[in-house]
Design goal:
The structure is a single chain. The two termini are about 35 Å apart. α4 (about 90-95) crosses α8 (about 130-140), α11 (about 240-255) packs across α12 and α11 packs across α13. The protein is mostly helical. It is built from 13 helices and five strands. It has helices at about 20-30, 45, 55-70, 90-95, 100-105, 110-115, 125, 130-140, 150-170, 215-220, 240-255, 260-265, 270-305; strands at about 5-10, 35-40, 80, 145, 175-180. Bound molecules: adenosine monophosphate (AMP).
């Protein structure tokens, strides 16, 4: 029997998971349980580059675990863990850091974007791609399901692995492939089509959270920023119409059709009618995952409040 390939992916506990996380990473990752040996983790060390409150880290870790639980993560058959549970990852990070040039790290988008915004860049953020390379390489991963924003980090992982293999004249670390699925691999903010949908955006209207109810989902789509023109009839127009491109991309992903089909069907029409259909589709697609997600989450609270053991208490280290 041939061994299944390994799929690895992580997600930072820096906020409530949103539609971008779902389409870019969680949905494909969950699907891959059927075909791969999977290793999924909550990237609590990565989160430390910007999270300072221990309680938030804990709550977001529960949120993510609840999301994976409600979406069909099979905890009995597949590894699901916190990054910090495996100290060897940070040990390997140091070895790899000693082989990685500063110049390579200076090319990383996360660092460049933060510097361009004049943010104070800590060494954690600067060397983030090395920790990520270590996460991927330590489990001998073959594929990594991620959103498009992580493509460059995966390329850096390959560079670091190759450097190790060349320096020591070995064929130790395998080549790793990013797996970028679907039509909505970079979901943009609902308030600004040029910005990635993210947990850290101050406006809750910029994203659809995996815990949002049907009314909130529909309202956020209704209020999503658009432009004054009618919907574009072909993808060539998308570059100048980022909000339209984002919403039409979401429709294509939810309905499992191509962007071209969505352009053919809605091009020339009004945003208001399109948004109504998109909202109905989004609710139909997202409510099945988000209802159990909210209830798994509140179930944990209920159980903890009544001081009974919860199946999620292991995350406290007390279960
Ligand atoms: P993060 O929230 O940065 O820890 O990202 C966790 C996973 O979600 C990564 O695989 C990202 O590529 C993916 N992801 C995050 N934001 C988006 C987005 N706006 N669109 C698509 N994928 C995303």
């Amino acid at each position: 029997m041939t061994e299944k390939k390994r799929s690895l992916s992580g997600i930072k506990p820096t906020g409530t998971p949103h539609l971008g996380n779902y389409l870019g990473m969680i949905k494909p990752a969950i699907k891959m349980q059927a075909t791969h040996q999977t290793f999924y983790f909550i990237a609590d060390y990565h989160a430390l580059t910007n999270i300072r409150e221990p309680q938030s880290l804990k709550e977001y870790t529960y949120d993510l675990t609840a999301t994976f639980a409600s979406l069909g993560m099979e905890f009995e058959n597949h590894a699901f863990f916190r990054q910090s549970d495996i100290p060897e990852v940070t040990e390997l990070t140091w070895f790899l850091a000693c082989l990685t040039s500063k110049g390579l790290m200076e090319r990383a988008h996360a660092f460049k974007d933060a510097s361009a915004k004049g943010q104070d860049v800590n060494m954690g953020l600067f060397s983030y791609p090395i920790l990520m390379a270590s996460d991927i390489l330590i489990y001998d991963s073959h594929v990594v399901p991620v959103g498009k924003d992580q493509k460059q980090h995966l390329e850096l992982t390959r560079d670091i692995a190759q450097k190790f293999n060349n320096d020591f004249g070995v064929d130790f670390f395998p080549e790793v492939e990013p797996l970028i699925f679907g039509t909505a691999t970079r979901v943009m903010s609902l308030r600004d089509g040029t910005k990635k949908m993210s947990k850290s955006d101050p406006s809750d209207y910029s994203r659809i959270n995996m815990t949002d109810n049907a009314d909130a989902i529909a309202k956020k789509i209704r209020k999503a920023k658009t432009d004054p023109q009618s919907l574009p009839a072909n993808v060539e127009k998308f570059e100048a119409r980022p909000e339209a491109a984002n919403l039409m991309g979401l429709y294509a992903d939810f309905s499992e059709t191509s962007i071209e089909d969505v352009c053919n069907r809605f091009g020339g029409g009004e945003f208001s009618a399109f948004k109504k259909q998109l909202a109905d589709l989004a609710v139909a697609m997202l409510r099945p995952p988000s209802v159990p997600c909210a209830s798994v989450r509140s179930g944990r609270r209920g159980r903890r409040d009544s001081r009974r053991r919860s199946d999620l208490l292991w995350l406290d280290g007390s279960g």
